[in-house]
Amino acid sequence: MMVMKMAVVSIGLLLLLLGSTSEEPVLQPQVTSECRETDVILTCNPKQAPKPPVEDDAEEHPPLPQPRRKVQKTAPKAPRGGCWARVVTVSPGPLIRVEGQPVSIRCDVKDYGGPREQDFEWMMSRDTSGPRIKIISTFDAAYSHPSFSKRVASGDISVVRLDDNEVELKIAEVKALDAGLYWCQTPSTDSVISGNYEARVQLIVIPNTLKVSPQTPPPVILEGSDLTLSCNVTRELTQPTYLSVTWSVKRGATSEEILVFGPQGDVTVGPKFARRFADGGIRLVPGRNGLFELVISRVTSSDEGIYECNGTEWTHESGGRWIKIVESFKEMGTVAVTPTDGRDIITMERSGVVISNTSLGGGQGKRGDANLEKAGSGEYRLLVRGVSGEDGGSYACRVRAFIEKGKSAGGGGRWHMATEKTSSPLLVKVEQTRTGSESQTIGSLDGQGNLLPGSLYSDRLKSGVISLTRTQPNTFKLQFLHTQEVDMGLYTCSVSVWSVNNQGNLVKVSEQQSSPLTVRWAPKRPSLKVMAKHIREASVGGATFEMSCVVSPENLGDVGYSVLIQSQESPGSNVRTIMTLSPDSVLQHGGATDPNRRDNLVLTKSSAAEFRFRLSGVQLSDRGYYWCDITAWTKQQPGQAWTKVTSAESNKIRIDFQENVFSVNRVRARISHPPHLFDDMSFYEISCLLDDLAYEVRWFFTRLRGGETTTQVASIDRFGVVKKEVRNSSSDMSVERKDANAYVLSVHGTQDSDSGRVPLRHHPLVPVGINGRLDGRGGAVLVADLPHSPLRR
């Protein structure tokens, strides 16, 4: 075979030889996609194509597939005087695809002879020196290699005919082992072997490392505010791939693209948002490390919807085509726009919880801080601090009345709104009054560099909160370490030049004042959120109750917290302060605390923003609602007094349990001698079996000869501490707890003075009637009403 350069020379010679013929041949050389490996044979004869020449090295090339005899439509005939050279081409490579994604490789054949519909065979090799593995064929169902037969049968690998001379190899989910070289081969149907019969392309498979991490936007935003949509799109760069990020909004079933950035760094805007983008209402803010932000300014109610972020990875193939190889859709969140007209400022619910809407949205930093409180019976007061021009307008009060339906003896009724009424609107105008007073001097430096503070800024300059320095001979610097809202305004710098006169005095020669510099910022209102939760719940008397209060600060710097533990028996009743903790961690008991029970109360700071309250040995009088009232404090400078910033109350935790009903299951007495009689120095014991509650058990004795006076002889409290009373007798007594619910009183060395009445009858087990109550300490006092049975000597 001749190489391409030799073919060009042969063309010129052939044209010279045929120049005198009446029919001028038309030569159409074809260039294959793999010129390095495929030779091109050009044959040209205006009348009859001769048989192809046989080269000496023909046996060195693998035999081409033999023509198939097939009755089909024939291919178009060659133009008069034309020449044929079959050309097989595939998609330009290399092809970079992502693991798990679909892959399509096209193959077509041109300038061929024989039937119009051509057949195709696909093979692959995992490296350049490896063997070719048969994948799939358009005419041979048993063509596939065993390693591909299952995937072909399942449809994971298929071949789709696009035209008579064009097919597409499809892989539904490409795998890492599919990477390699792919050949498309066409069996010959030509009468003359000419051109190339196969083409090759490389497939590169990379892992799926595309990650899309959007930040959740605010669920509610005020009309006119700015909405920032942040999305982080990254991937591990192993091949030359490119990224794009798309923001879209979904309303109902339709989704609209807002803006697309990439993959070439270009910006494409959706048709409905093009005008706003051109006007600056929508802007793109690329960040670092894959962070992209889309800012929508001055949102309206039409901007409501579900926002989505789409990250896409692309590859740039030969021919300038951009191919999408993988993409990931992530829902950012739903955004609702609250109209500024007729908006709810603040709401107090039935439970007394106040919900403020003044902190919503970016534009609310210019509005005043609203607070709603109950001033009296049926009277509520709205207080707005730090008003501005945006707080002007019509204010109205809306009241809703609720009734409880379906309430049973145990509670659990549902609340239904019965009526609603809105007051007449009250017009509020906010005017800004400007005084004609002169500007205030912050400080000055004289010619010797001495600092002369202004009267209003003297303390702040002395404490170092404000500093005025000379950094260079012609440069002076004013610095604020802790700014306040009163520091906003217009700042100017006045410089004067002085000289020494003949008498040696300083005389001002000239003075120049700089242009005013406006210093203003959007103040962020500090706020607190306090959440209370159960740690230990008291369900019976004598148990321990513990709760935790977690503080979530917003727009607060280095602050200290004071905590008030408050309670009330029922909603609407008087509020009692149990304990307090100052920002300096000084603990105090409230006026509602019983002095005898202060050891049962504990309030600690368990972490920087968590406080825990514990109440041991709860009683019936402790039932009610408990919550935390936390205030944030700050110091302008170390050593100064605390200044209150803001405060908030937590949700309420309830202590609720029923009074225990005590009972003695049975009382059993066993005497070491026959009933009613015992000797000196004998022994007897009385056993009490109780239920599974914690009790304080006491034993009493009434003398047989000494009146009806009953005295206590021994006791054991709920902690197992035994106490024996002083007795005028030589006998001894012991108390023993047999198990969790059994108590035993034993009398050792009985004497005549031990004769008396004891709670026992002639039979060992007798039913008894028991009354139960709670004493002042929350313990159980058991009183057994037993028939008296005298014990005699």
Keywords:
5 domains; six-stranded antiparallel β-sheet; mainly beta; six-stranded mixed β-sheet; 4% helix; (spotted green pufferfish) hypothetical protein; Immunoglobulin-like; Ig_V-set; 793 residues; single chain; disulfide bond
Helical content stands at under 10%
**Oligomeric state of the chains present here:** single chain
Largest sheet: 6 strands, mixed
Radius of gyration: 48 Å
**Outline, from the CA principal axes?**
extended
Strand percentage lies at: 35-45%
Helix- and strand-based class?
A: mainly beta
What is the number of strand segments? 57
Q: What is the tally of helical segments? A: 4
Domain count: the total is 5
What would you say this structure looks like, in words?
Keywords: Disulfide bond, Immunoglobulin domain, Membrane, Repeat, Signal, Transmembrane, Transmembrane helix. Residues 45-79 are annotated as: Disordered. It is a single-pass membrane protein. This is (spotted green pufferfish) hypothetical protein. The protein is mainly beta. The protein folds into 5 domains: 4-142 and 176-202, no CATH class; 211-338, Immunoglobulins (Immunoglobulin-like), CATH 2.60.40; 447-519, no CATH class; 527-655, Immunoglobulin-like; 666-791, Sandwich (Immunoglobulin-like), CATH 2.60.40.10. The chain is built from 4 helices and 57 strands. The strands form 17 sheets. The chain has a 6-stranded mixed beta sheet, with no helix packed on it. Strands 38, 39, 40, 43, 44 and 45 form a 6-stranded antiparallel beta sheet that branches. It is extended and about 145 Å long.
